[in-house]
Design brief:
Length: 731
């Protein structure tokens, strides 16, 4: 220990006199800090990326040049020869070099954090302890790595060549100088074998998300193992005098020090955990960017319209709303978007979709992948400015996977809420879909798609199980069908138990209805929303009044009636709309068009033609509900015939307007009302200070021409400006 402390004291004195040490520990990182800071750090969380990148660059510099090159120079200058005559081993000398690097570099990190906070407004990291420990481990590991290089080379020239061979890939392929998000997918896989990549993602997680050392255990383990292995090898190959030469093959010992990262890289290529984490971190940085949308009409969503104003977005939220005059974007450290002639609205919401159904018929069913189709659907909705959807009945495991991938930010798509399986009767609506499946698949499908409790007690337990899996709502079915296409209707007392238990769990309930009788029962049960209402008869005025008094929302889903009716006629005109053409896979479009005219589906079309569904009846019930003051919400029942995933809300609103609903009422139904139904109105649904910056910008004024809703200029999701054309290229 005395020898170690003595060497540490000597090293610190020499370091203060060594210009190279001072350059690589202080000036070198600060040059990058200011260069990157003024390029990327002025807007939102860009400065977090800058601090992460520059800290990594500094660690690499102090490791390879501050330790490796300096050790070679000391051997060539015969400094080490003087120590040889003393009764010591290389261990305290090498450990002192590592410790000296840590001591010198920590002030650099503190200085960068101070500058980032005071110049660029970055908040200080919430987990100081983890950051310091992680930086110390990084410096120690890479200084030990540098000491191996010093041990295996015979001259400064050799050291410089070997350092550059190792240093340059780490500098440019780790995310230290170019964010991983800019790299192609194949190169991202290569980066998983680069040791510095784990410094970048580890520090980003600690700085950006307040992660702990434990949450970065794989990176910590690799750094510690590398430090110990490198220190051991450097000790065994240590030479006091420059006359002592090693064979060229000795340089292969460097690969041994890299072995932990080769193994970790192989695991990460297989698991993609670090790539996923890097993608999520990049998404969070994108969502923290500052934007100022100016000179635009603002449809607030609560009945208010600002004819000319601006919206400031910061850290994923609406920071401020300006009516009339607004500050300069540069003064707010924001990028400006000119909204002249445009309208800003809250992101649109569809409260009734089925992601597991395509809306049509692919040309080649053998190539149809339901999982990929569901992902494509979420991407399609976001492309069209429908920023939130609620699945009103899909396979539970599929929904949980979608929420994991898209909810975390790993993939970019519309925000997903879901009901999970349908509560229905044996032989009730929802169970008929299993009839078209091979018998071996039916049990699995039913377990995922429906719940058919036989008693109130069983119903409550099933609700509890779904609540434990964090579903966002519960859906029940009340429908007996029609002659020739009848269903067993669910027992009202069992459904009452479902509703009561869901409400006890603070989950909203949606009840599917097919007739006015179903609506009467659903309202009496205290559902939170009536789905579909009735397309076959008129809903009584008393029931509509009861909906108003109980605050029950009405979701008329006119789109599905139109889709059924059009398909029955063999009319595929609904597929010709521009946004539908843009987001729907070509094989699904062409296959559905052919199916609408094909003799193969003649019997199906004939059956639909005689099914008693009327869009006029649905429109009349909708109009009565509006006139009575019932809360209206927009749902499309997408996934059914010709109701393709994507611009569903735009078309549903057009149908409402055609039925006599004022456009401003329809827009409020698609924004603030729908958000209230989802219990998400504290975050989305209106353009108000403090809420998530989930917005749709359209060309023109949809209050005057509802078709302007389809003229999309930009989409924001939680502060991130969506690169719409890149959505379908995600892997």
């Amino acid at each position: 220990m005395k020898a170690f402390l003595a060497f540490l004291k000597i090293d610190l004195k020499l370091a203060r006199r060594n210009r190279a040490v001072l350059f690589f520990n202080y000036l070198f990182p600060l040059i990058f800090f200011f260069a990157f800071g003024f390029a990327f750090g002025r807007y939102g969380s860009g400065i977090l990326l800058v601090v992460t990148m520059v800290t990594t660059i500094g660690i690499l510099g102090t490791g390879f040049f501050g330790a490796g090159m300096r050790a070679v120079q000391e051997r060539e200058e015969n400094i080490l020869r003087r120590y040889k005559v003393t009764p010591i081993t290389p261990v305290p000398l090498l450990c002192a070099s590592i410790a000296m690097g840590v001591i010198l570099y920590i002030p650099t990190v503190a200085l960068m954090l101070f500058l980032a906070h005071n110049i660029f407004g970055m908040a200080y990291p919430p987990n100081w302890f983890s950051l310091i420990i992680f930086v110390c481990l990084g410096v120690a590991a890479f200084r030990a790595f540098g000491l191996i290089i010093a041990a295996v080379v015979n001259s400064s020239q050799e050291a410089n060549i070997l350092i550059q061979i190792i240093y340059m890939p780490m500098l440019f392929l780790s995310g230290a100088s170019f964010p991983l998000a800019f790299m192609p997918d194949w190169l991202k896989l290569v980066t998983q074998f680069i040791p510095a990549s784990y410094l970048v993602t580890g520090m980003a997680g600690i700085l950006q998300r307040g992660e702990s050392i434990a949450q970065n255990s794989k990176s910590v383990f690799a750094l510690v193992v590398t430090m110990l292995v490198a220190l051991f090898i450097a000790t065994k190959l240590f030479r006091w005098e420059k006359e002592e030469k090693l064979r060229p093959s000795a340089k292969l010992w460097v690969l041994v020090a890299l072995l932990p990262f080769f193994l970790l890289g192989g695991y990460q290529v297989w698991s993609r955990q670090e790539l996923t984490k890097a993608r999520i971190l990049d998404r969070e940085r994108s969502r923290a960017h500052n934007w100022l949308i100016t000179n635009a009409r603002i449809f607030v969503g609560n009945g208010k319209v600002i004819e000319s104003g601006a919206v400031l977005i910061s850290n994923g939220r609406i920071e401020n709303i300006y009516e009339g005059n607004f500050p300069d974007a540069k003064a707010l450290n924001a990028d400006a978007i000119d909204g002249s002639g445009k309208t800003i609205l809250p992101g649109l919401i569809d409260v009734h979709v089925h992601l597991g159904a395509s809306g049509g018929f692919p040309e080649d069913f053998t190539k149809y992948d339901p999982a990929k189709a569901s992902e494509r659907a979420l991407e399609s909705y976001l492309y069209c400015g429908v920023t939130t959807v609620r699945s009103a009945g899909d396979r539970l495991d599929d929904l949980l996977k979608l929420r994991q991938h898209f909810g975390s930010g790993e993939k970019l798509g519309t925000e997903l809420f879901f009901c999970g399986p349908l509560f229905t009767a044996e032989g009730g609506h929802g169970t008929e879909y299993a009839k078209f499946m091979p018998e071996a698949m039916r049990a699995s499908f039913n377990a995922q798609f429906v719940r058919t409790p036989k008693s109130a007690e069983e119903a409550r337990k099933q609700v509890d199980d779904l609540a434990a899996q964090q579903v966002d709502a519960i859906k029940g079915v009340l429908e007996a069908g029609v002659p020739g296409y009848s269903f067993k209707r669910m027992d009202v007392d069992i459904l009452r138990a479902v509703v009561e238990e869901a409400h006890a769990r603070k989950l909203p309930v949606a009840i599917h209805t097919g007739s006015s009788k179903d609506v009467i029962d659903a309202v009496a049960l205290g559902t939170d929303s009536v789905e579909h209402g009735s397309f076959i008869d008129e809903i009584p005025d008393a029931t509509i009044a009861e909906m108003k008094s109980k605050g029950i929302a009405y979701d008329p889903t006119l789109s599905v009636v139109e889709g059924f009716s059009s398909f029955a006629k063999g009319d595929a005109t609904l597929l010709k709309r521009s946004l539908v053409q843009q987001v729907t896979p070509k094989d699904l479009l062409s296959g559905t068009e052919k199916a609408a005219a094909s003799d193969q589906f003649k019997d199906l079309r004939e059956g639909l033609r005689h099914y008693p569904m009327s869009i006029e009846t649905g429109g009349n019930n909708l109009r009565k509900a509006w006139q009575a003051g019932v809360m209206l919400v927009t749902g499309s029942d997408a996934g059914n015939f010709l109701v393709m995933h994507g611009p569903t809300v735009q078309h549903e609103i057009e149908l409402w307007v055609a039925a006599g609903i004022p456009v401003e009422v329809a827009l409020q139904a698609a924004t603030s009302n729908a958000a209230k139904l989802l219990h998400a109105d504290s975050q989305i649904g209106t353009i108000e200070k403090g809420k998530e910056a989930t917005l749709l910008i359209v060309d023109g004024n949809p209050l005057q021409d509802v078709r302007a809703l389809s003229a999309i200029s930009a989409v924001f999701l939680k502060g991130e400006r969506v690169a719409r054309t890149q959505l379908f290229d995600q892997r």
